[in-house]
Each structure stands twice: as C-alpha cells, then as structure tokens.
C-alpha cells in the first residue's frame, strides 16, 4: 500500500499543477473578474457564511490574519464587502456582501459553472461522479493534514471524569470556534452550561466521557449523552482536540471510543450536530460511518450557520451496521 501511494505522488503533483493553471490561478482576472484569487475566495466564503468574522475567514482561507485584514480593507474600500458593528468582545465585526459584492459573486458563479459544465461535457457521464468524489476526498485529506505536526508526545485515551476536564473542554471549544467561526462569549457559555448540566448525569450507565491525554494534560474530549435525544438514541457531544495534537489521530481515537461504547450499550443510532464548513471534521465523521441526515439554517451559536445533523446506525451484537460504509 505504501509503495502504491509513493508511485502516485508525482502524478498527483503534476495533475495539481495542471489544475491550478487550467482554472486560471496563474492569470489575472480569475473567474472572469478583475480580482486576485484570494479576493475571489474571500467573497465566496463571505457569501456562504453571512456574518463571518475576519478571524474565521483567516482560518478558512489558510492565510495569516494580517493578510486577511489587508485584503478585507481593500474589498471594503472597493464597495464589495461591508463590516457590521463589533460584537460583545468589541473586536469581532461580522462581514457581509454589499449589492456590488453580490453582483461580483454572481459573475464568479456564472463563469465557474460554465467552466465546470464545459469540462464535464468532454467526459463520459459515467466519469462525472469520479471527478466529484476524487476532488472532494483529496481536498478533505489536505484539510485534515493542515494542522498536523511531524511528531508529538504520545496521546492516550482515558474514560471518565478527572478534575479540570470540563473546564478544558469548554476552553478548547471557545478557542477553536472563535478562530474558525467567530463565535464569542455566548457560545462559550452555552458549552459550559451544557457540560455543567451533563456532569450531574455522568454517573449513569448510558452516559460516558472520554479524554485524550498528553503528558497528563487534557488535549481532547468527547461525550456520549444517552438521555438527551430519547430512548435508543445516543447524542455524541463535545468532540474537540487541542491545536497542538490535531491531525495526529487523537480525534479518531476519541470517536472510536465513543462509538464502541454505543455499540456495547445497544443504542440504535448515534446522532451529532455540527455546521457546514468544518471539512476535516466531516471527513472524520464519514470515515466512522456517519452520514448527513439533515441541514438547516440556525443561529444558536452567535451567528447564522448551516447546521448539520449526522447519523450513524449502531451495530448490534453479532450483526453489522446497516447503512453506507465508512470511507
């Protein structure tokens, strides 16, 4: 398997370079508009996540905050983007498109759709899904490795509560989602209050908590709430891994421990709620057999997002999971 992967590295690199060139990233006027590639992507992300903050946009684009700040200043001056009033923390300003910005993104979408449609017309219809799945899986794999580090001390998984674990869970959520989605104090309070309520039920057999530990420090958490959704349904909550260990397998280990607990407890299915745009997390869920069951706009977490519910049927003793296999 390693040898097969090694043989594909150079062809994938060559294809990636060709893709960059054919999409127009080497030319001025990407997607038919007089804007640099970073500005095109910024406009599309702001359109998709109305109210996103500069910090969250920086994480999505993989750019330094200072670079995003300069980029946004130019887009605001050009009349493409508007900044809303600062939030409760006095710093996070929600971003939205102006009418001019919406017209620009409309032109970008039109150009890109014609480009994609033209390419698909040159391929047999049977290969269309191959293109879609291949690009998505490759992009997800690249995203999953963005925060990976070459080597780190070993991480162990421990079941059950230990002092400070709930506080660390709330802290890791607050820091990560402030950067990725611009969530603020009300989100942190929501996480903390949920954990406080759950802690009073943690001793019941249908509920569980798992911690990822590195050098005796909590660097990841996940919980199964067996009461929150009703009989036979497990609610997977508070899956988070600290920045320094993300990409090293701690998230997979935590998720596997939680799913194994659900199988042992005989739940019918596991549900989790997240929101659109967290590509690495979605890839992790899908590898464990979770499938997207529902999505809808929501404002529970400081700003409007596209909430998503993923479901995984649980294998009974001596039987197999019924549903799509984990990829």
TrEMBL record:
Which SMART domains would you find in this protein's record? Answer: HTH_MARR (SM00347)
Q: Its Gene Ontology molecular function terms?
A: DNA-binding transcription factor activity; N-acetyltransferase activity
What residue stretches are annotated with the N-acetyltransferase domain?
Answer: 155-311
One Pfam family it belongs to = MarR_2
Keyword annotations: Transferase
Please tell me whether the keyword Transferase is annotated for this protein: yes
What sequence ranges are listed for the domain HTH marR-type? 5-140
The protein here is known as: MarR family transcriptional regulator
Tell me the organism's taxonomic lineage.
Bacteria, Pseudomonadati, Pseudomonadota, Alphaproteobacteria, Hyphomicrobiales
